[in-house]
Specification:
The radius of gyration is 17 Å and the shape is elongated. The protein is α+β, with helices and mostly antiparallel strands. It has a single domain, classed as 2-Layer Sandwich (STM4215-like), CATH 3.30.2000. The chain contains 3 helices and 6 strands; from the N terminus they run αββββααββ. The relative contact order is 0.21. Strands 1, 2, 3, 4, 5 and 6 form a 6-stranded mixed sheet that branches.
Length: 154
């Protein structure tokens, strides 16, 4: 029995995203990319106080006698698009949301095609989304943070 489904779910999600035609050429990483490219997606952790990432949630005992636990957690996925300043912020932001839509679509298709997300989790769904638009002297950036809530009995 696994201690947690988090590593398996993250790995399976990354594999699915890497296979999507709409994400061709996008850097997809398990955790924050060491050398971020112009377009990247990382399956990270949560917006918890831990600056190194991590996963919020936890495990609770299931009904007595079964010696199982109910695991619930929220993974944060970060989408980033960076383009030179001569590009409009609208172009950069719309591209980031296009990549975010690929993630949402992938999760919906996975839920429909494979019972229980390939046996990894009972359910997973997008529960929140936020974005920011940082810029520096050379580039415009758009970041979209997507929260994916998951649950499984382990």
């Amino acid at each position: 029995m696994p201690t947690s489904t988090i590593p398996a779910f993250k790995t399976a999600l990354i594999t699915r995203l890497a296979a999507r035609a709409g994400l061709t050429g996008v850097q997809i990483t398990y955790g924050f990319p060491v050398r971020p490219e112009r377009e990247w997606i990382c399956v990270w952790g949560t917006r918890a106080a831990d600056p190194t990432g991590g996963t919020a949630g936890g495990q609770r005992s299931a009904p007595m006698g079964q010696q199982r636990r109910e695991e619930r957690y929220v993974l944060e996925i970060i989408v980033s698009v960076t383009l030179p300043l001569h590009e409009s912020q609208q172009t950069v932001t719309e591209r980031a949301f296009t990549l975010a839509a690929e993630i949402e679509t992938s999760l919906r298709e996975w839920a429909t095609a494979t019972p229980r997300f390939g046996g990894i989790v009972r359910w997973a769904q997008v529960t929140d989304m936020a974005h920011s638009e940082p810029a520096d002297a050379q580039d415009r950036e758009a970041r979209v943070s997507i929260d994916v809530a998951c649950a499984e009995r382990i």
